[in-house]
Amino acid sequence: MKVQLLRIGILACFMIFCWSYEDVSAASTCEPYGEIKPNQNPSRQHINCLLTNASLKENVPPEVVKAVATQESGWKQFDGNGQPIIAQDGGIGIMQITNQPQFDQQKLKYDINYNIEAGVKVLRSMYQRTDLPKVKAAGPEVIENWYFSVMAYNGTKPANSPLYKATGQKNLNAYQEKVYSILEQYSFLNDTKLGQFPFSTADFEYDPNTSKNIVFKKKEYILTNPHSSIYHLKTGDKVLVTRDGVNLRSKPTSASSGKPLSKNTNLIIQGNAAYDESVDSSNQFVWYPVKTADQKLVGYISSAYIMKKV
């Protein structure tokens, strides 16, 4: 019993560790969740931790990586029979790593953390490509700046063109559009709409009847409303509530009691971000401990409902 209580105490402390853009050492391990059992998917919040850590290590917005993992596998490394998920095209595991011989193929199948780290490295390598467009004056912390990197993760093929060449209409079936829709749904709970690119069919050169890669004619876009990753908040940062009725929770879980806040309520980050207290929660966001600017209220707020005050 003492051992069990000790483990619970360690996990409770762990679940409110902090991270930052500059230093992710405090979030360098998810071991307090316990050992990952062979051929079993970890708990949802353990996976949330693994995805977050791997993303920050490679300077990729965790929101983007979590959405990619959702699109690729639904956050699963193993199927119901305990076998590695391998797609018909050879994609392996949670990140569906395909045609990447530089990685250990067995570890990709059986080591979920290795698979995640490999997927994030592949995504990061796509960001470093010089043939893909970027958002003007935006760094890697800007979520929209990964749009074409996400496309390239799946392939810069005609099927993923942002616009249909014949009509100029938005291609909602494009891989990256699906990923960014998932991102809005799970990281922002459909409360925030990401910035929209001013695309033109002239921006993309390709033959829709072939599988040859798209040639990008325009290499830079101006967005009027870009969004930075929420994972770079630190103690003392000021944030605003993005909608009416958001609950300030007593604990980092939706199951705890809450007090509703009004839109644009000023909050101050009190330090350590937390994963959901329920390890099986499907929440992809995190919880930040905050206090109101007048210091009358303290509690936890979902990262889905706040934005940094500028």
| Total count of domains | 3
Strand element count: 11
**Uncertain regions spanning at least 5 consecutive residues:** 1-27
Kindly provide the radius of gyration, computed on alpha-carbon positions and rounded to a whole number of angstroms.
20 Å
- Structural class by SSE content: alpha+beta
Q: Biggest sheet: strands, sense, closure?
A: 5 strands, antiparallel
Strand order, largest beta sheet: 10-9-8-5-11
Task: Quote the average pLDDT.
Answer: 92
Cα distance spanning the termini: 49 Å
Strand content: 5-15%
Give the H and E element order. Answer: HHHHHEHHEEEEEEEEEE
Proportion of helical residues: 25-40%
C-alpha geometry: globular
The count of helical stretches stands at: 7
GO molecular function, one term: peptidase activity
Keywords: Hydrolase, Protease
Domain Transglycosylase SLT: 53-157
Protein name: Serine protease
Topology:
Layout: H1 2-14, H2 44-57, H3 62-73, H4 105-110, H5 112-127, E1 134-135, H6 147-154, H7 175-186, E2 204-205, E3 215-216, E4 220-221, E5 238-241, E6 246-249, E7 258-261, E8 266-269, E9 287-292, E10 298-302, E11 306-308
Parallel strand pairs: 1-4
Antiparallel strand pairs: 2-3, 5-8, 5-11, 6-7, 8-9, 9-10
Helix pairs in contact: 2-3, 2-5, 3-7, 5-6, 6-7
